[in-house]
Specification:
single chain; 88 residues; two-stranded antiparallel ribbon; 4 strands; 43% helix; elongated
Length: 88
């Protein structure tokens, strides 16, 4: 129930943002709402999910992460070198 309520609220907010430009009121067509704190929070939540999903996929491929650090949208990553079967 809470999940659905949050989905509805976030959808309404993200699809109904208006702003002014050159003295004209406009509706945001796509993308995150620049200047809205909610946009930054949603981006952080998404990036936490993305980091976990990326790590899971690397693990499936047998690639070992030695470091994965993030600051907002900057990523520093170190992984072990891999070789292909033709190089063995």
């Amino acid at each position: 129930m809470l999940k659905e309520a949050l989905r509805v609220v976030l959808t309404v907010i993200m699809k109904n943002h208006v702003y002014t430009f050159d003295g004209e009121i406009r509706k945001q067509v796509k993308g995150g709402l620049i200047g809205l704190k909610l946009t930054g929070v949603l981006a952080q939540i998404f990036m936490i999910w993305w980091d976990g999903e990326f790590a899971r996929r690397l693990e499936i491929l047998g690639i070992v992460q030695r470091m994965n650090e993030r600051y907002v949208d900057d990523i520093n990553m170190a992984v072990e070198a891999t070789v292909t079967r033709t190089e063995i």
